[in-house]
Specification:
single chain, 119 residues, mainly beta, seven-stranded mixed β-sheet, four-stranded antiparallel β-sheet, 0% helix, globular
């Protein structure tokens, strides 16, 4: 299983970035985004169920971030708007085979992509 995350970069506060996570030729029960800032624990950002309409966001990103999927491309996106310096982190995508959608336990993890928001 390969999860290829991309789209990170350096942006000024208030700017936008879109992260992508391409899954290797298969679909999963759910996919999510997590982030880890220097010196902090990894935290949940957003998740989407591959079939159906379930979506979940961390309170800190609600109204600014949007998770979506492209079934044909087996890709999940994270559109990040109105970015803040506190959004600076390495962002990871993850996939789960089954289980509780709202659980933060995932089976597979991609490599991270750095997002840096300057003030």
């Amino acid at each position: 299983v390969q999860l290829q995350a991309s789209g990170g970069g350096l942006v000024q506060a208030g700017g936008s970035l879109r992260l992508s996570c391409a899954a290797s030729g298969r679909t999963f029960y759910g996919m999510g985004w997590f982030r880890q800032a220097p010196g902090k624990e990894r935290e949940f950002v957003a998740a989407i169920k591959w079939s159906g309409g379930l979506i979940n966001y961390a309170d800190s990103v609600k109204g600014r971030f949007t998770i979506s999927r492209d079934n044909a491309e087996n890709t999940v996106y994270l559109q990040m708007n109105n970015l803040k310096p506190e959004d600076t982190a390495v962002y990871y995508c993850a996939a789960k085979e089954r289980g509780n959608f709202y659980s933060h336990d995932y089976d597979y993890w991609g490599q991270g992509t750095q997002v840096t928001v300057s003030s």
